[in-house]
Amino acid sequence: MANKIKVVISNDQKDITIPTGIRLLIRRCCTAVLLHENFEDSAEISVRFVDEDEIHALNLQYRNVDSSTDVLSFPLGENGVYDINPDTGAKLLGDIVISVPRAVEQAEMYGHSLQREIAFLTVHSLLHLLGYDHVNGGLESVHMREKEEQVLTQLGLKRNASYYMEEE
Predict the structure, then answer these.
(1) Global pTM?
(2) Mind listing the domains of the chain with CATH numbers?
(3) pLDDT (tens digit, 9 = 90+) per residue, 2-25?
(4) How many C-beta atoms surround the C-beta of residue 81 within 10 A?
(5) CA separation for the pair 28, 11 (Å, rounded)
């Protein structure tokens, strides 16, 4: 069991009210992923809710992609080596940035709750912070998808239909 998991959540968008319980859900998702991955150290993760314009700007600035997206992951570690918070000794895993309007849109499109969509985006992004990737597709992508579903099922958020769409 991880020593202590600190999840700092900030809402930097004003258009959509974040439903009650989402912050607790995000913390549960982060804890479940770290347990699933046998991550035994203390950890800190930052989660930001943003609007379409902000995620578009971040995607352009950091990935040179001129469009908005649903979630961005900014890992602070590489190959299991992380910066350490000198005050707490916790490993700084990185930042998760979620587009709330896109999460709402995708929840409707896939026919599940906003809670389920935000949970998926959080789990997906935290796996990126831990070094998993799906950019090259193939087995790596399948492996990551299986881990996401295992964690979400464990949290009682099993998917009700196929919702994964290939990126262009």
Answers:
(1) 0.89
(2) 5-154 (3.40.390.30)
(3) 479 999 999 999 999 998 899 999
(4) 9
(5) 18
